[in-house]
Each structure stands twice: as C-alpha cells, then as structure tokens.
Amino acid sequence: MKFLVALILLELYSSIEGCEVGWVQFRTKCYMFSHTAASWAEAESICNAFHSILAEPRSHEESMFLISHSVNQAGEFWIGVSDIIEENRWIYSSDLQVSKVNDFHAGEPNGHTGANCVALWKPFRGYWADESCGAHYNFICEMSQESGGDVLG
Length: 153
Ligand SMILES: [Ca+2]
Prior knowledge:
With 153 residues, the protein is of the alpha+beta class. It is built from three helices and eight strands; from the N terminus they run αββαβαβββββ. It is globular and about 55 Å long. Calcium ion is lined by residues 83, 87, 111-113, 115-116, 130.
C-alpha cells in the first residue's frame, strides 16, 4: 500500500514537472522549435546534443500539434521522417518504422530521389513537404517528458 502511494505520488510529481525552459509540452513529450537553421542531418545532431531527437509524430493529434505550433513560428521545420534509405518509404529515424502519420500536402511528396527529408512547410500551412536533406531549415527536437533530458524513452 505504501509502495502504491509512493508510486502515485511519483507519477503525480513527474506529470507536473513539465518541460525544460524553452521546450513546449504536448501530452507526454517536450518539443523545442529551433530558432536557427541547419541541414536535416545537422539538425538531428543538434537534437542529440540536447538528449533529444528530431520530432517523430506518432499520431494524428501529435502531428497536428506540431503543424499548428510551427505555423506560429518563423520558417520551415525539419522533423525526423525521411525516405533516404528507400525511395517513397517514409520512416522514423529512431526505430526505422514506417511513419504512422502521413500529413503530406496535396501534390507532395514530389521531389523523388532529390528530396528525401520531411519539413513542415509554412506555405502549406505547416503540412509536409519533401525537401532536399541538405537544405537549411529550422527543426523540431523532441524528448519524452518523463526522461527529464536524461534518457530518451
Ligand atoms: Ca524521396
């Protein structure tokens, strides 16, 4: 019983702990919308440097949060979805699984092998565009809220 109470208190504590300064929360994750631009691969490295990864929307709700938040910021935003490994097979970087979300704008993706990384595209009201991975855009990092920046869940 004591253990259960402690567990509940721990859950309660972690749920009100929230996100680090500069990160915004949606459900169980914290996100950082960068103010600087980088290539897709550089963006992933920068996220990793802060114990996070490029954002990987796993549900329609999460994707819509990223899209709606991104259009209130300046610039376009890389996320961690790409078809670098196999053309037109869009996967998450962290586990190589096919993306559960497809929020490409009508007419996208259209860049074929010359565009293998996904950006939230402001002229499309934040919906996805396939872009050249070497292009420099802002980016969104994510970490799980429970991790507190230590280990990615
Ligand atoms: Ca492609």
